[in-house]
Amino acid sequence: MMKHKFNYNWTLKDANFTKDKGKVFSCFACGGGSTMGYKLAGFDVIGHNDIDKKMIEVYKENHKPKFSFLESITTFAKRKDLPSELYNLDILDGSPPCSSFSSTGNRELDWGKEKIFKEGQSKQVLDTLFFDFIDLAKELQPKVVVAENVEGLLLGNSKSYVRKIYAEFDKTGYYCQHFLLDSKNLGVPQQRKRVFFICLRKDLAKPFLYQKDMFTVLPKIDMVFKEKIILLKEFIDYKDTKIKCTDLYSEYYDNSRQGKPVGKFKTVKRESENKVAFTQVATNRNWHPTIKREMNDFEVKNIASYPQDYESLGIDFQYLCGMSVPPLMTAQVASNIYEQWLSKL
């Protein structure tokens, strides 16, 4: 069997975090999905920022960060009292909230509107937060900036938004390029397409520059991964037979087909043993392929490549994992950035 670079079924207590590849700060850090990826890749994640108090507490419980900022990125980017360590970062990481661009959301109807999250956070215009994040990059000037977002950002009218992102990174002093990646090809047992914007500071880029076409010069980096896909049957739990479905769910389950939405539950699908698990969403768990129940925590964590001993402080793991970047997805991206860029600077 082909060996994977990182193990999707893992624990924090047994992980080897070498912290010798560089320093990272994570924005919109949520429960710490991307943070764990950087740590698995050998980076030292020295701090985080988020607007959600509950997620801040979960992050602190599991990662014990040196720096923790509970505030909006808009406020954080304007700070002039940031620790000196944040001005010497190898990577500034961020996953700006993306529901305005999700293919399952309202898209254009929500652009420019203020939103309040269920945790009682302050109002935010989601589609401007990416540019607040770029403002922070302008202030801190890390060697590399990594921003993750939904596939919908590359669809339809969102493309003009992407052009603006490129223009802002260019003005901020970075070469920017983006990659559409599917986590199933990166050693994660889940189908999850995400866009990664990977930006290198211009004064560091000379050794890596190449002519992409007759008009475009970019610092070369390879984001092709050859991990073997992981089918659900490799880790599915067949022993947990406790029925967790309500009567209504039970009726829909009986009439469902694998891989299809379950009745009126448009975001819920019945999994298939012989396929890679579907994308995890924060709101609902998909259903077990052969047992009339939702996927359990063991399965959810494996699908998300979350450690089995992660402390959620009472937050449902489906929500935590659905809101997070799969750790192994970030680990693969971070490893390539180190091997192809940072290790040569």
Write a structural description:
25% of the residues lie in helices and 18% in strands. The chain is built from nine helices and 13 strands. The chain has helices at residues 33-40, 53-63, 73-76, 129-140, 158-172, 247-254, 297-304, 317-322, 327-340, and strands at 23-27, 44-50, 67-70, 91-94, 114-115, 124-125, 144-150, 174-182, 193-201, 209-211, 217-219, 261-262, 265-269. The strands form four sheets. A seven-stranded mixed beta sheet has the order 3-2-1-4-7-9-8, sandwiched between helices. Strand 10 and strand 11 form a beta hairpin. The chain is globular, with a radius of gyration of 20 Å.
Beta strands, count: 13
CATH architectural type of the domain at 23-226 and 325-344: 3-Layer(aba) Sandwich
Question: Which sequence of strands runs across the widest sheet?
Answer: 3-2-1-4-7-9-8
Number of helices: 9
**The CATH homology group name of the domain at 23-226 and 325-344:** Vaccinia Virus protein VP39
Task: Tell me the span between the first and last alpha carbons.
Answer: 36 Å
Report helical residue fraction. Answer: 10-25%
Q: Could you say what the CATH topology of the domain at 23-226 and 325-344 is called?
A: Rossmann fold
Give Rg in angstroms.
20 Å
Shape: globular
CATH class of the domain at 23-226 and 325-344: Alpha Beta
Range of strand content: 15-25%
Low-confidence stretches: 100-115
The SSE order reads EHEHEHEEEHEHEEEEHEEHHH
What structural category do the secondary elements indicate?
Answer: alpha/beta
Largest sheet: 7 strands, mixed
Q: What's the mean pLDDT score? A: 88
